[in-house]
Design goal:
The protein is built from six helices and no strands. It is an all-alpha fold. The protein has one domain: Ferritin (Up-down Bundle).
Amino acid sequence: MSIPNKYKLPVSIALCLLIGFLSGVSTSENISGWYSILEKPFFNPPNWIFGPVWTFLYILMGFAAGSVWKSKAPEIQKKKALFVFGSQLVVNGLWSILFFGMQNPFLAFIDIIILLILIVYTIKLFKPINRMSSWLLYPYLVWVSFASVLNLSIIVLNN
């Protein structure tokens, strides 16, 4: 079954937002509990900033993936790029489960390093298919890089 091109962008954006929503479920219940008592670095943003930033990033990610999906690039090239994109999306969702759900910043840090590698690889694979799609992932890369420093700082401050 093939999805018409006109649906590929909205489906991609909706899928990314769904992953974000599911990640938020494991996050929200621990924000006022376990997370609130952790020692955090001075550069830790206020809690309210994470939702809007992640929503914006998931929309950019969905737009990028949808643009690749509907491109005229060879199917094998698109499938590989979208497989890596999907892999990083799963690893992204896993971070919230590890950090907030399991309350394990160390495992979450290992996850986020894998996530960074997969984001860079996704950017590399998207670039020859749709240059704009690769550029749309740079804000995501920057935010996850910041989040990895924040994650590591929380480990150091709480051990």
